[in-house]
Amino acid sequence: MRALVIQTSPCGEYVDRPEGAVQMTELDPKDVLTDLFDSDDLPLPNPEAAAEIVIQRLIDAGFEIK
After folding, report:
1. Using 50, 70 and 90 to split pLDDT, how confident is the model at 2?
2. What is the pTM of this model?
């Protein structure tokens, strides 16, 4: 079992990070979705492909993904 470090974000919310994790200043949408789809809560056989599909569908619907 990994130890979690509880920290607060700039807006005061609590954030769980694995011990030794480095805070990122910019998140890539594909990485965020891949991480979500590869979690125990929502395991998918190919999380990277699922992330690409979701991003493409959002773009097709008119959303701007940076």
Report:
1. very low
2. 0.57
Contact 40, 46 (CB under 8 A): no
Backbone angles phi, psi at 36, to 5 degrees: -60, -50
Please list, in sequence order, all residues whose beta carbon lies within 8 angstroms of the beta carbon of residue 37, skipping any fewer than 6 positions away. Answer: 43, 44, 47, 50, 51
Q: Does 1 or 28 have the greater pLDDT score?
A: 28
Query: In the predicted model, what is the mean pLDDT of the chain?
Result: 76
- CA separation, residue 8 to residues 4, 26, 45, 58 (Å): 13, 17, 33, 30
Residue with tokens 């910019």: 26
The greatest distance separating any two alpha carbons of the chain, rounded to the nearest whole angstrom, comes to: 41
CB 31 within 8 A of CB 39: no
